Amino acid sequence: MGIAYAIFSLGFAGVNDIVFKRYGRKSRPIGFFLASIGVVWTSFFLIIGSLKGNLEANFETVLVGSVAGIISALANILLVEGMKRAGASIAATIYRLNIVFVVILAFLFLHESINFLKISGLMMAFIAIILFSTSGTGGKSNDIALKFILVLLLASFLRACMGISYKVASSCGANDEIFLAVNGSWWVIIGCIYSLLRERGMEMSGSTLKYGLFSGILVCGIVMFLKLAVNSMDASVAVSVSQFSFLVTAPLAAFLMKERISLKMGMGMTLAALCIILFSIAK
Questions:
Q1: CA distance 213 to 39
Q2: Closest CA to 49 of 194, 175, 207, 216
Q3: Is 58 helix (H, G, I), strand (E, B) or coil?
Q4: In terms of Cα–Cα distance, which of 184, 175, 187 is closest to 41?
Q5: For 201, phi and psi rounded to 5 degrees?
Q6: Which of 22, 34, 168, 182 has the fewest CB atoms below 10 angstroms from its CB?
Q7: C-alpha 60: how far from its chain's center?
């Protein structure tokens, strides 16, 4: 079931990418948007835990949940900052290459195996992301300052660490609902701090709240199914598969936003699908 959970996480992420795209069409606050997502995220898992009668928290759950929440919030903020100067396609390419960091970190710290199928799947994933992210026209792919490349690499690394932390939480027997609720609470805190430091002149509007509510629901699906996936399979596989949200985003964008699916995008989607098959049979 682990691969199925990862695919469900992928599906929610694909729809959420469309929400992010639409939100970013206008100049709107990012910090308050992240904070509103965090409110929905935290509330959802506290309610689920309450209904299950399972809101017991220990030190490990709060600690690992805090680490995961902080680094995931910072990763998203760094991605936004990098996109401002590097362009969306370059930023997305570097960010999604966190799958390389995930496999390395899982091997070093979780002692997960690296075999031929995983390596083959990883190579296909790498090529798929490059093909997909370079299929657009225009952009800011030239003359990008090194510091913004480093910002995006840091965002990618932090996103990989978030995936690893989900597996660490499983290994130490963390309460899933409390772990995920703590994650979301840090999005509220860091989102508000970002707004105070970087967006003082921007106010929270009704559209920010609406998008935050919708995206928050989708994020709950993303993290819930990712947590279920890493509970039952290698983090290197679960996190990598969950990164292929473009398999859902591209068809939705073509249907809803009239974006064209190019030959490169089609090839990238095919390779990503083959990667998922290889990961699903990898031991």
A1: 9
A2: 175
A3: coil
A4: 184
A5: -85, 0
A6: 22
A7: 23
> Hey, what amino acid is at 170?
S
DSSP conformational letter for 28: -
Geometric angle at alpha carbon 248, from 123 and 5, rounded to 5°: 75
Residue-wise pLDDT tens for the chain (283 aa)?
A: 888 999 999 999 989 888 887 887 788 899 999 999 999 999 999 999 999 988 888 999 999 999 999 999 999 898 887 776 666 656 666 777 788 889 889 999 999 988 888 888 888 888 887 786 666 544 444 445 567 778 888 998 999 999 999 999 999 989 999 999 999 999 999 999 999 998 887 877 889 999 999 999 999 999 999 999 999 999 988 998 888 887 887 788 788 777 777 888 788 888 888 887 887 777 5
DSSP letters, 206-260, are HHHHHHHHHHHHHHHHHHHHHHHHHHHS-HHHHHHHHT-THHHHHHHHHHHS---
Write down how long the chain is: 283
What is the reported pTM? 0.86
Q: CB within 8 A of 154, min separation 6: which ones? A: 78
For helices 235-242 and 116-133, give the axis angle rounded to 10 degrees. Answer: 20
Do 8 and 165 contact (CB within 8 A), yes or no? no
